[in-house]
Write a structure and sequence with these properties.
about 500 residues, alpha/beta, about 15% strand, binds glutamine
Length: about 500
């Protein structure tokens, strides 16, 4: 019998870097088509155990790979992602491919168009392998709310991969994709990346188009990349970022070559450490790793300062009011008429609506629709939704004040390492409270990167969250590169 502290069987495998893969394709030592086939074989071998992919887009992948091999054979220049096998979270629509958002209500739904971020990946040469499992409508922190079963953490299959983009994080950790896309509304890229030991990016709100993203909470939702190293994650962000006529909230701010930016080093940067993120509830082993990471930044030539973000304690309730209110409005469109599941046996139209929704939505989604509808209802709007919007503003202002003194803020990404499957499913509030370190940046609209920062004694990854002000992704990448290089 394995003892409590023995290391579990792991599915962890480090993907090759973009430049290693592309060197092979360019020099024609390997074919993009063979790389894609190898990934499909790996997926076939391990997906049953890890439940990472919900569906595969094999024909599309092999067609794209053939185009790339053809270009390589003619000596044509490659795109920044040419031949790189990628997967995307199932909340992003892909033309003609099942796009379920992890929900039964969208089972079998095949959208007629591609999300902008997906189209941009492919235009840059990426080979789309398939769609990745996630919490239903991106609501959750453990991937246990997926209607298609939980994803298992490749580091320890008895544990959750985090959520809601659990499949996106786990795919990179197990090398079932070299890079992936996820979405982050309150931590859904950063927390699973930290639980699985990979890099995850929260772009500034508006940096990446939300066109083709099945909406959860529109004022908070962001699309962003996962990769095994900071440089490759930065490359993907440069590809998917930038204005899009199909999303009025996408920003026209100029997009940098973030990989090149990340090469600049972190020397001389001022790093803020907020005391509120090191208070009660933080696992001592996580604290120890993050403190080592901070010391490593100091050794690289950063100046470390204390900063204070006192409104942090209001962030979780504020987030769960704003997010559920917006979700209750966004999810009204799933009524059995236009998309997915329609209840077969209803006498009236109103019965058809309510039966379709009752049968199609899972328990957590229903809980949030009810919470959000309540918060928006006439008699309670001022007390809940309006109040939450005011606190949101205070939180954002507090970050702006802090960024007047520091270039980046570093914190643990999550208070604990990956927990066991089933450990928190009976207590939704405990699950919500664990989002404490990520929902703040979501409410403020600022950007960040989570980067692996060592592991606990039993080998569970710890992630450091590096936050930067609006549109300042370059700084976050520079700091994250320094933490990565320090091999904490
Ligand atoms: N865990 C948070 C929630 O359940 C965040 C989800 C997300 O970012 N999509 O709402």
């Amino acid at each position: 019998m394995p003892s409590e502290t023995s290391k579990p069987t792991t599915f962890v495998q480090k993907p090759k870097t973009f430049s290693e893969l592309q060197e092979g394709i360019r020099s024609r030592r390997v074919k993009a088509a063979d790389i894609a086939r190898t990934y499909y074989e790996r997926i076939e071998r391990t997906n049953e155990q890890l439940n990472i992919y919900l569906s595969l887009t094999k024909d599309r992948a092999l067609e794209q790979a053939a185009r790339i091999d053809d270009a390589a054979s003619k000596g044509d220049p490659l795109g920044p992602l040419s031949g790189i096998p990628v997967g995307v979270k199932d909340v992003l629509v892909v033309r003609g491919a099942p796009s379920t958002a992890g929900s039964k209500i969208l089972k079998g739904y095949q959208p007629p168009y591609d999300a902008t971020a997906v189209a941009r990946l492919e235009a840059a040469g990426a080979v789309l392998l398939g769609k990745l499992n996630c919490d239903e409508f991106a609501m959750g922190s453990s991937n246990e709310n997926s209607a298609y079963g939980p994803v298992r953490n490749p580091v320890d299959p008895e544990r959750v991969p985090g959520g809601s983009s659990g499949g996106s994080a786990a795919a990179v950790a197990a090398d079932l994709a070299v890079a992936t896309l996820g979405t982050d509304t309150g931590g859904s890229i950063r927390q699973p990346a930290s639980f699985c030991g990979v890099v995850g990016v929260l772009p500034t709100y508006g940096r990446v188009s939300r066109y083709g993203l099945i909406a959860f909470a529109s004022s908070l939702d962001r699309v962003g990349p996962f990769a095994a190293n900071v440089r490759d994650a930065a490359t993907v962000l440069s590809v998917i970022a930038g204005p899009d006529a199909s999303d009025a909230t996408s920003s026209s701010a100029s997009v940098a070559d973030y990989a090149a930016e990340s090469d600049k080093g972190a020397e001389g940067l001022r790093i803020g450490v907020p005391e509120e993120y090191f208070a009660e509830g933080l696992d001592p082993e996580v604290r120890e790793q993050i403190e080592k990471g901070i010391a490593a930044l100091e050794n690289t030539g950063c100046t470390v300062k204390r900063v204070s973000l006192p409104n942090t304690r209001y962030a979780v309730p504020t987030y769960y009011l704003v997010a559920t209110a917006e979700a209750s409005a966004n999810l009204a469109r799933f009524d059995g008429v236009r998309y997915g599941h329609r209840s077969p046996s209803s006498a009236t139209l109103s019965d058809m609506y309510s039966h379709s929704r009752d049968e199609g939505f899972g328990a957590e989604v229903k809980r949030r629709i009810m919470l959000g509808t309540y918060a928006l209802s006439a008699g309670y709007y001022d007390a809940y939704y309006l109040k939450a919007q005011k606190v949101r503003r205070l939180l954002a202002d507090e970050f702006l004040r802090a960024f007047a003194d520091v270039d980046a803020i570093v914190t643990p990404t999550a208070p604990t390492p990956a927990f066991k499957l089933g450990e928190k499913t009976g207590d939704p509030l405990a699950m919500y409270l664990a989002d404490i370190y990520t929902v703040t940046a979501s409410l403020a609209g600022i950007c960040g990167v989570t980067v692996p920062c060592g592991a606990t004694k039993t080998g569970l990854p710890v992630g450091m969250q590096v936050l930067a002000s609006h549109m300042n992704e370059s700084t976050a990448f520079r700091v994250a590169r320094a933490v990565e290089a320090a091999k904490v």
